[in-house]
Design a protein that fits this description.
- The complex is a heterodimer.
- By secondary structure, chain A is an alpha+beta fold.
- Chain A has two domains: 76 residues, Ubiquitin-like (UB roll) (Roll); 85 residues, Orthogonal Bundle (DNA polymerase, domain 1).
- Chain A contains five helices and five strands.
- Chain A has a five-stranded mixed beta sheet with strand order 2-1-5-3-4, with helices on both faces.
- The two termini of chain A are 31 Å apart.
- By secondary structure, chain B is α+β, with helices and mostly antiparallel strands.
- Among the domains of chain B are: 150 residues, Aldehyde Oxidoreductase, domain 4 (2-Layer Sandwich), CATH 3.30.365.10; 201 residues, Aldehyde oxidase/xanthine dehydrogenase, a/b hammerhead (Aldehyde Oxidoreductase, domain 3), CATH 3.90.1170.
- A seven-stranded mixed beta sheet of chain B has the order 3-5-1-13-10-11-12, sandwiched between helices. In chain B, strands 7-17-16-15-8 form a five-stranded mixed beta sheet, with helices on both faces.
- In chain B, α11 runs parallel beside α18 and α17 crosses α18.
- The chains are: A alpha+beta, B alpha+beta.
- Chain A: This is (2Fe-2S)-binding protein.
Chain lengths: 192, 834
């Protein structure tokens, strides 16, 4: 266990479906603690709470993990980008980012994917302007945001398509078909 | 020489109007079907030139090889390797809080007494080399002065590193760093480049503070470099023109600010010494091999004992061409005797690392009333900040990138001064002087056209580069004609035509309200493909018995998708799919040499090395195919995962060849291919940037309606990745034009400490963007490719200045353009008119 900053306390977290007890210092932000425990999809690109790279779901709400004290997350349920899909079986939003070439250096992408999933959960058919507003605090230096925005609109189309299948009696796919602990795609409307 | 220009002219100054069309502006590009036919016949003569129908792995939107890792959060960047080092120590740098002075003493006792502190280093420690070096990450010997020390006794800006600590965890490192007490003897500082440039200003460097001085250096007046070059006789032409009623002389002035790379992943390095005593760096770098050499020289260890590995990196844009933090990390590692990770904070990125050089430029031209440019004279004063890394070379590119847009102008002069101030240091940044230079040249040309009553686009096309031109201006600062360049591919006219169509140039509708005015502006753009005569790329292809290949290449993917591009080029030659090519890149122990990812060299130089290596391996494939098909190698080719005969249609799979070559009864061979590429060529990619703007004349606020960028990068190996480069480059260019800037207080303290204070455009700040790819074939590039990455960073400032001029008739000359500036310009014109 890595050493932590400040007086260490144990906090209980459910991370991507797994309950765990971690040691966190009073000075540690949540992103640092998650990264120390191997959740490297949580990125740190600023000095706290501005660039969006550390976005995760905390009890269903999107938060920048670097902008909150780890101890404030005690008892909460956290979902990182790693819970959404696997490389072989991507979440529709992840797949759309891949297919639309929305990824360059990729450092900001986990946070952007999390925000896009949250958006499409609350607003399955957003306009381009709504996508842009949703992603407004995710800074990206490589893409000019063009292809990420296209990817989110494409993902919306794909997920709508899947949902219309479900409405016709097919399998509902708001929750993508991933194995065990990574079954939930979002923090918003997925009861499990 | 200094120019003192009058203010740019405005509408009311207009000399005369004419509807005469300049000559020579008709579109001369062949139509696409004709081009395809030409390509097909050309294919017989040039095996490198393929019509689209014969391309398998190139001109294809191949999925970026790391995209799935990235979207699932599995991609490992430098900091993500911490779990490989159980005893990793964490570094922290103590930085100067004064702009200029000497470190008198450093009290480290309180920090050293802390639990969990592994090392504290100061400029006075033996482990810190007392040696001058350049952090530039350029080829050897660096065309940048050696003026840095790892830790600095003489501090020259707020942010200079004076000490560093390594501790068991980041929080302890932070606390220890705060307990280090530094006493300074302060010196006078200077922050304005014009004030700094003179004998009376505070002097940053004594002559012996610098080795490897650059051309024209005079440190007694803070001059890092002065340079000038001339073609023809500029003064004579201006003199004649000023006495001639049919010729005009027009002067303009331009100013650009600091810009931050805003590199997504802050600079991060892990340094350790492995079980074989090899000093190893996992580091976010664009230049593994240059870093290896620079570290070896600086720390006096053999190059062979240093290993530099580039993992996935969170982009570079030039900031990671710099060896900005590796030396401190290594010194901490030596002092702590354990692996050390040093990771910059965002505040350090914004205050202490590297930036685009601010500049003041003057541009003067002599033009005939027929619209022929007879002379161009460009001068730049570059603020290098406290140190000289890339100072001269970036300033050189202010002229040598945009002036070649007009290679037939007979009289050209370009000169510059690079001066030091007590502010953060400029360095390489995507575009590399070309964004500054294009602002001056392309906004100037627009002004000249409007002044003379020409259509601004037609005026430029009349003078602009054509295929077959001999370009001497690119080499204006060099002796001799070795680097004079023949233009072998140029799609600039089709870029303009298609850009005009995409922006709706001929059908712009004005808003209904009287106080809102709409306009469109255009800028021509050129860049290079690598540094002419200063590049080397190398690659090796190894066949596996299952018909797949390992491609070892020194080239560096900074997030652009270069590794994917490499696999496509190799696959096109080898006849396999890109997925059959495993790319192993940018590790000085495992891959052949490469100068690294800068100067838009990766596709053109490293990609060509990959092609050469694959062609070398292909010869062996055909040899083995010949044995197995029993036909001569000359009758065979690769394709569809095998070697086939065009005569008989017989074929053998690459897998069969792989197994036979590896395990055959009679003969065995590991099929290998190697390739090098170095050249004096640096063919320019071309572009046309269009901006559509609406200005509110009551407030000066303006709104961008649309951006269009049409690009000629030769043959696009992966068109989707090329589009991504263009869109991202335009983003930076948009920021440069509208919002990016660093400010400092009167003591040189930075006022921009993070994203909150910096004007980086967000999603909602971006207008609609349309990208047009115009294909040409560059005969010296791999499969006809030129570069793309830097090209699109150059266009928005001039195109927006031109669009605003088009909309409301006033000229903005200082970046970034604010509503206040525009309102002031409108008010000034009203006053003049009144």
């Amino acid at each position: 266990m890595p050493k932590t900053g400040g007086n260490a306390v144990d906090i209980e977290l459910t991370i991507n479906g797994e309950r765990t007890t971690v040691e966190a210092g009073s000075a540690d932000d949540l992103a640092t603690v998650l990264r120390q425990h191997g959740y490297i999809g949580v990125k740190c690109g600023c000095d706290g709470g501005t660039c969006g790279a550390s976005k995760v779901f905390i009890d269903g709400e999107v938060r920048m993990a670097c902008g909150m004290a780890a101890t404030d997350a005690d008892g909460s349920e956290i979902r990182t980008v790693a819970a959404l899909g696997t490389q072989a079986d991507l979440h529709p939003v992840q797949q759309a980012f891949v297919d639309n070439f929305a990824v360059q250096c990729g450092f900001c992408i986990p946070g952007m994917v999390i925000q896009a999933v949250a958006l499409l959960d609350s607003n399955p058919d957003p306009t381009e302007q709504e996508v842009r507003e949703a992603l407004d605090d995710n800074v990206c230096r490589c893409t000019g945001y063009q292809k990420p925005v296209e990817a989110v609109l494409d993902a919306a189309g794909r997920m709508q398509g899947e949902q219309s299948v479900a409405a016709d009696g097919g399998r509902p796919v708001t929750v993508p078909p991933h194995g065990d602990e990574s079954t939930s795609c979002c923090g918003g409307g997925c009861d499990e | 020489m200094r120019l003192h220009g009058g203010r740019p002219v405005s509408d009311s100054d207009r000399v005369r109007k004419t509807s005469k069309q300049p000559e020579g502006t008709e579109r001369k590009e062949p139509d696409p079907t004709e081009a395809d036919r030409e390509s097909a016949t050309g294919a017989a003569r040039e095996p490198d030139r393929k019509p689209e129908s014969e391309r398998d792995a190139i001109s294809v939107d191949e999925e970026k090889d790391d995209a799935r890792k990235i979207v699932t959060g599995q991609a490992r960047y430098t900091a993500d390797y911490r779990d490989r080092f159980p005893d990793l120590a964490h570094g922290r740098v103590v930085r100067s809080d004064i702009a200029h002075g000497y470190v008198e003493s450093v009290d480290t006792s309180a920090a050293e007494a802390m639990d969990g502190v592994d090392a504290v280093i100061t400029p006075f420690d033996d482990v810190v080399p007392d040696k001058l070096y350049s952090s530039s990450g350029q080829s050897y010997p660096e065309p940048s002065p050696w003026d840095l020390k790892v830790l600095r006794e003489h501090v020259r800006f707020v942010g200079d590193p004076v000490a560093a600590v390594a501790a068991d965890d980041p929080e302890t490192a932070d606390r220890a760093a705060r307990k280090i007490e530094v006493e300074y003897r302060e010196l006078d500082a200077v922050f304005d480049p014009e004030e700094a440039f003179g004998e009376d200003a505070p002097q940053l460097f004594e002559a012996d503070d610098v080795e490897n001085k650059q051309s024209g250096a005079d440190y007694s007046q803070n001059l890092e470099s002065h340079f000038e070059g001339e073609l023809g006789d500029v003064d004579a032409e201006f003199e004649q023109a000023s006495d001639d009623e049919e010729r005009y002389v027009i002067e303009t002035e331009w100013e650009t600010p600091y810009q931050s790379h805003c590199v997504p992943e802050p600079h991060t390095t892990i340094a350790y010494t492995d079980e074989d005593d090899r000093h190893t760096f996992i580091t976010a770098t664009q230049v593994p091999f240059h870093t290896r050499r620079q570290i070896a020289h600086l720390f006096d260890v053999p190059i062979r004992n240093v290993r530099v590995k580039k993992p996935r990196i969170g982009a570079g844009f030039g900031s990671k061409q710099e060896m900005a933090i590796e030396p401190i990390t290594f010194a901490l590692h030596l002092a702590a005797d354990r692996p050390v990770k040093l990771e910059m904070s965002r505040q350090e990125e914004f205050t202490a690392l590297r930036f685009r050089h601010p500049m003041q430029m003057q541009m003067r031209t002599a033009v005939t009333d027929d619209g022929d440019i007879e002379a161009m004279d460009l001068y730049t004063l570059s603020n290098s900040g406290a140190y000289g890394t890339h100072g001269m070379t970036v300033a050189n590119n202010v002229g040598t990138k945009p002036l070649p847009l007009y290679p037939r102008v007979p009289n050209v002069r370009f000169s510059g001064d690079v001066v030091h101030t007590n502010l953060p240091m400029g360095a390489a940044m995507r575009g590399y002087g070309a964004p500054q230079g294009h602002f001056a040249v392309e906004a100037h040309m627009d002004e000249v056209a409007r002044h003379l009553g020409f259509d601004p686009i037609e005026f430029r096309l009349q003078n602009a580069v054509r295929e077959g031109d001999l370009d001497r201006s690119v080499a204006i600062l060099k002796d001799g004609d070795r680097f004079t360049r023949e233009i072998r591919s140029c799609g600039i006219r089709e870029c303009v035509d298609r850009g005009k169509e995409a922006i709706g140039y001929d059908g712009i509708e004005q808003p209904d309200e009287d106080h809102r005015k709409r306009g469109v502006g255009m800028a021509l753009i050129a860049q290079g493909s690598g540094v002419a005569g200063k590049e080397l790329g190398a690659a090796q292809v190894q066949m596996n018995e299952d018909g797949s290949f390992h491609l070892q290449v020194g080239g560096v993917d900074t997030g652009t998708g270069a590794d994917t591009m490499f696999s496509q080029i190799a696959a096109e030659v080898l006849g396999c799919t890109p997925e059959d090519v495993v790319v192993i890149a940018a590790d000085t122990d495992l891959t052949p040499f490469d100068y690294g990812a800068y100067a838009s060299s990766t596709t053109y130089i490293s990609g060509r090395a990959v092609k050469n290596a694959a062609e070398d391996a292909k010869e062996r494939l055909l040899e083995w195919g010949s044995k197995l098909i029993d036909e001569p190698p000359e009758a065979l080719d690769t394709g569809d995962g095998g070697v086939y005969s065009e005569r008989t249609d017989d074929s053998v799979s690459l897998e069969e060849i792989g197994y036979e070559a590896t395990y055959g009864d009679d003969e065995r061979e590991h099929i290998l291919g190697d390739g090098n590429h170095s050249t004096d060529e640096s063919p320019p990619p071309y572009g046309a940037q269009f901006v559509d703007v609406t200005v509110d004349t009551e407030t000066g606020e303006y709104e961008l309606n649309k951006l269009v960028f049409a690009a000629d990068c030769g043959v696009a190996i992966n068109p989707a990745l090329v589009e991504g480069q263009i869109e991202g480059g335009e983003h930076m260019s948009l920021e440069y034009a509208t919002s990016g800037d660093l400010t400092f207080d009167e003591e040189g303290n930075p006022e921009v400490l993070g994203f909150r204070q910096y004007g980086m455009p967000r999603t909602t700040d971006h207008p609609e963007m349309e990208t047009v790819l115009v294909e040409t074939h560059e005969p010296t590039g791999p499969f006809g490719a030129k570069s793309i990455a830097e090209l699109p960073t150059n266009g928005v400032p001039p195109a927006l200045s031109n669009a605003i001029r088009d909309a409301v008739g006033v000229r903005l000359t200082e970046l970034p353009f604010t509503a206040e500036d525009l309102k002031a310009a409108l008010d000034e014109r009203s006053a003049d008119d009144g």
